[in-house]
Amino acid sequence: MVFTEQGVAMLSSVLHSEKAIKINIEIMRAFARYRSLLKENESLKEEILKLDSKLNQAFKFLLGQIDALHEKANKPRRPIGYRVDQKI
Which of 19, 62, 71, 84 sits at 20 to 30 Å (Cα–Cα) from 52? Predict the structure, then answer.
């Protein structure tokens, strides 16, 4: 599962077991290390931002394709079966 840093901080107010507190502290330390690593390494930050941009474009494309499929599926179809002419 994925938590934001703020989510982990909120979770810490609910957890009371010794093991949960230790894991929570380690998660917060990981966030702090990640933040400091990004501050120290500008090229890594740029690469992550580029990757994020590419992923956003890919998701937008995929969502557009899914929406197109939904629109195509909602078009009325021609009835199946024999036609009965109104003229006799």
Answer: 71
Burial code (b: 16+ CB inside 10 Å, e: under 16) for 1-36 equals eeeeeeebeeebeeeeeeeeeeebeebeeebeeeee
Question: Alpha carbon of 56 to those of 42, 46, 50, 69, 85: distances in Å?
Answer: 21, 15, 10, 20, 54
Question: Whole-structure pTM over 0.70, yes or no?
Answer: no
**Confidence label for 58 from pLDDT (cuts 50, 70 and 90):** very high
* Cα–Cα dist 78/73, whole Å: 13
